Amino acid sequence: xxxxxxxxAGRRLSPTFVIGLVLVGLNVAVALTTLVWTPYDPTAMTxxxxxxxxxxxxxxxxxxxxxxxxxxxxxxxIALTVGIGAVAIAALIGVSLGLIAAFASxxxxxxxxxxxxxxxxxxxxxxxxxxxAASDGASLGTAILAIGVAxxxxxxxxxxxxxxxxxxxxxxxxxxxAGTSWIGIVRIHVLPNIWPTxxxxxxxxxxxAVIAEASLSYLxxxxxxxxxxxxxxxxxxxxxxxxxxxxxxxxxxALLSLVIGLNLTADxxxxxxxxxxxxxx
Length: 281
Prior knowledge:
The protein has 281 residues and is mainly α.
């Protein structure tokens, strides 16, 4: 009788998952708001230099007198744009390579796995820096491409492992004997069984992409001015951190809220994808 009630209890969302969704939702709402409204023009010098938080400027102003709250709002849009773009690229490249490796011959599989292991050995940020440095110059599009390509190796490795587990199942062997094409096996059997775990990993990659973009912008390799990336705001505020600390605290808290929200959401998705992780009550 206990097992019958378990699925119903398992559908209840964990508090951490709800908190994660709220944090991510707030950042998404702020990012969407900037498409139609911001408190001030992000490039306008609307106040004194390094003014403290006030009713006119909720987060104060930066070293040029621009409204910091407006820049942080736009930074949310940039962070989410980079995260979505990078994850889409990582999913497209990574899942494709992972499926190819899963179906490939032993020799080709070994080559692909060795290549992926080499790429994974490089830190994502370092690999992204190399790609940006090798491109024509720093830009938002370059940062998205670099982070997405760097993350694709991890997605490909996971996809290969998951796909090979599914391919070893008896029902897949029966489908092959029945003449089902490899495309049909991928569509009917492989993807439906591996997507829950992939979604969790992609949610984690989303958070890593946001951090990577902020790091690239901090180093001057991300979206160039006047894009108000959180990383660039942190870089600009480091020289005045003692005289105007809120210039560094505000974008840091914004970055922290989004990354924590994404990690909590990923953890909640993991619980949903793997019912054995749920705490039975």
